[in-house]
Design a protein that fits this description.
Layout (H helix, E strand, L loop, with lengths): L7 E13 L6 E13 L3 E5 L6 H8 L7 E6 L2 E2 L7 E4 L11 H11 L4 H14 L15 H13 L5 E5 L7 H16 L7 E6 L2 H7 L2 E6 L4 E7 L11 H14 L38 H13 L4 E3 H8 L3 H13 L3 E4 L2 E4 L1 H8 L2 H15 L1 H12 L4 E3 H8 L5 H18 L3 E3 L4 E3 L2
Parallel strand pairs: 3-8, 3-9, 6-7, 7-8
Antiparallel strand pairs: 1-2, 1-4, 4-5, 9-10, 11-13, 12-13, 14-16, 15-16
Helix pairs in contact: 2-3, 2-4, 3-4, 6-7, 8-10, 8-11, 11-12, 12-15
Length: about 450
């Protein structure tokens, strides 16, 4: 379809979103100057890593939370509260356990004051559409995960929204159930029988985005921003075996693993060498995030790459082999790259000589190498080590460091940064942590 000519149903215009940090310590910016359009008759995917604000943007467009700045227009009207033009399916099933399937589906209609006879008729039609006829009187505890999510789809579709919002709706399901439900949604859309005029799906699954969407909006992270769009120029239905499908997937893997890369309309204009990361800006040590990855996971990935016998492996193939969600795999790769055990470019991961040594040496030497690289490239940990070293008793309360991290991150993320720092430091034998006393110390 010609998206330029499509009637715009929802438009986000230079919107930003910031949340206050604890104790009045400023703001944490989740989204900055984001502009996105959803046109009639298209499926749009918001693709981004953790920290890109995908779900926050979706909730802003649904009118569940306000933007800090900018405007959102739905069906030509500026949004001032809950958006009546959208239905929403969440990652969690969010069903009321004391209500039956049909009662859960009718909830939105009941809230809109639809008469009982009419809402029952529409609910039965929606239940039939998602393949749950026969389960109208069942309770959520009697349903499998896939069936619960079908109820979620029916509940969103029964209100006949102009745009259906999908917030990672398949991520809580097992692989086969997710693939089955994804395919059924795609079949309904391709058949022209879908109750909504457009679909907006939030995902971090690249293949899912290419399979379902006409257009992929790629978001950058920290803060979230639009890096660009990729047109999925394939006839529907999109077939995974199509060479163009594979090329689009590989291109998006390259884009997602190279945050500094320019995002163009598609892979035909990929420029070798364009994906190099810029030199990191000089910022506070505490503002340089640690990827939330366990040390053993980093080691396992490097060992796997070594076992392939090839110094360079395609990230897309690696993801397929490991059956790992993209966010999880990219987090591990980020950690390996941070520690200079691997490099990432053009959608490939290349193990360095240091990384090969780390993956194949003795446990004691691997600890030495990890300690060396953490001190050189993980400034949060290095700063904690230096601070402890300056104390006569080599001891500090955890609150001291958590208070500093709170200056840069929301409370939950500050705790996660602290926990990751503690785990890495323990493995490297740099300092210890007494969780009962909440004390960090050098033994």
């Amino acid at each position: 379809m010609n998206t330029a000519a499509a009637q715009t149903l929802i438009e986000v215009e230079t919107c930003s979103k910031a949340f206050p940090l604890p104790d009045g310590k400023g703001e944490f910016t989740v989204l900055r100057d984001v502009s996105v359009k959803v046109g009639r008759g298209e499926v749009v995917a918001l693709l981004g890593r953790s920290g890109s604000g995908k779900s926050t943007l979706l909730r802003m467009m649904a009118g569940l939370i306000p933007a800090s700045s900018g405007t959102i227009v739905s069906n030509g009207v500026p949004l001032r509260g809950p958006n009546p033009d959208v239905g929403m399916v969440f990652q969690s099933f969010a069903l009321l356990p004391w209500l039956t399937v049909i009662e859960n589906v009718e909830l939105g209609l009941e809230a809109r004051g639809v008469a009982r006879t009419e809402r029952t008729k529409r609910a039965l039609r929606a239940i039939d559409l998602v393949g749950l006829d026969g389960f109208e009187s069942a309770y959520p505890k009697e349903l499998s995960g896939g069936m619960k999510q079908r109820v979620g789809f029916a509940r969103a579709l029964v209100v006949e929204p102009k745009v259906l919002f999908l917030d990672e709706p398949f991520s809580a399901l097992d692989v086969l159930t997710a693939e089955n439900l994804r395919g059924e949604i795609d079949d309904l859309w391709n058949a022209g029988t879908f109750p909504a005029k457009s679909i907006l799906i939030v995902t971090h699954n690249i293949e899912e985005a290419v399979f379902l969407a006409d257009r992929v909006v790629v978001l950058g992270a920290n803060p979230g921003r639009v890096r660009g769009e990729v047109l999925i120029d394939l006839p529907r239905p999109h077939h995974r075996g199509d060479d163009r499908f594979k090329l689009l997937v590989e291109y998006l893997y390259t884009v997602m693993t190279n945050p500094a890369m320019d995002v163009t309309a598609g892979p035909s204009v990929m420029v070798p060498g364009a994906a190099q990361r810029p030199a990191p800006a000089k910022v506070s040590a505490y503002a340089r995030e640690l990827p939330h990855v366990r040390v053993g996971t980093i080691s396992g990935l490097l060992e796997l790459i070594v076992e392939t016998g090839e110094p360079t492996v395609e990230i897309a193939r690696l993801s397929e082999r490991l059956a790992l969600p993209m966010d999880d795999l990219l987090g591990i790769l980020d950690a390996a790259a941070l520690l200079e055990f691997a490099t990432i470019a053009e959608g490939d991961v290349t193990i360095t000589e240091l990384g090969r040594d780390y993956a194949t040496t003795t446990i004691l030497r691997s600890k030495d190498l990890f300690r060396q690289q953490v001190l050189a490239h993980a400034p949060i940990i290095a700063t904690i080590v230096n601070t402890l070293g300056e104390k006569a008793n080599k001891t500090m309360r955890a609150d001291f460091f958590l208070d500093i991290l709170d200056e840069y991150y929301p409370a939950d993320e500050a705790k996660r940064q602290f926990s990751t720092a503690v785990e890495w430091a323990r493995y490297a034998e740099l300092f210890e942590y007494d969780a009962d006393e909440e004390l960090l110390y050098i033994a």
